Amino acid sequence: MTEIKYPLHWKKKDFSIKIFCSIPNIATGILLKAENSHFIIDPGDGILRDLNNEIGVKKLLEITDVFITHGHHDHVGGVWSLLTYLRVMQKKSPLTIHYPDGCVEIESIYNAFKKVYSKSITYKINLKSIKKTNGFSSNNITVKPFPVIHKEFLSNGKTRQVPALGYNFVFDGKTICYGGDTAFCEALVSHARNADLAILEAGHDDETPDEMHMTMKEAVSIGKSAKKYFLVHVPE
Ligand SMILES: [Zn+2]
Ligand SMILES: [Zn+2]
Fold first, then answer.
1. Which one of the ligands is nearest to 201 CA?
2. Residue 12 C-alpha to ligand 1 middle, in angstroms?
3. Which of 64, 89, 156, 215 has the fewest CB atoms below 10 angstroms from its CB?
């Protein structure tokens, strides 16, 4: 298997992205920066440690938006600690969490957090479930979500599609495409095309395509349509 050395970093003027890690079944953690605004994408386990090292407490408290691709633990495992840390450190400005409609993990974490800390939450949390994939602006970036194909196993051995999105982030004429976890799909093909950076999972560990992750070959074929690409979520 190809070994990927994290963190992966891309930067064009005031627009940058840092992927602290993206390891299937373990953790993802991504920081997006546009001018002085910071955004978190898929806060898996370890996100607080990485953000604290990277931007420190003050900037952490100023974070406005979190983007979730889907509810698997390797993408949302750090949400509880993030919300709690921001409470402990007395965040005052609101935090918006964008997530695919039907993502029960995010709603459950949020509800549990509200219940446990009902008397001591210092900041407002806006839960924004994304039902329609219309573009929107958040702070100073434009966000274009798109549906992807990603499944999970049930206890009876069958699979089901999970609510899952990819996102294009646009700032200062540059586009970053992040597909999240996805099988090969047309929406990803079209959103990655001509992107300045495409971040593509190659999480399937053999060369026979399935409906959960992309093979290395599929990810590379999409990556080549972008100006630059990173392969992530490759099994270690
Ligand atoms: Zn994953
Ligand atoms: Zn997943």
1. 1
2. 27
3. 156
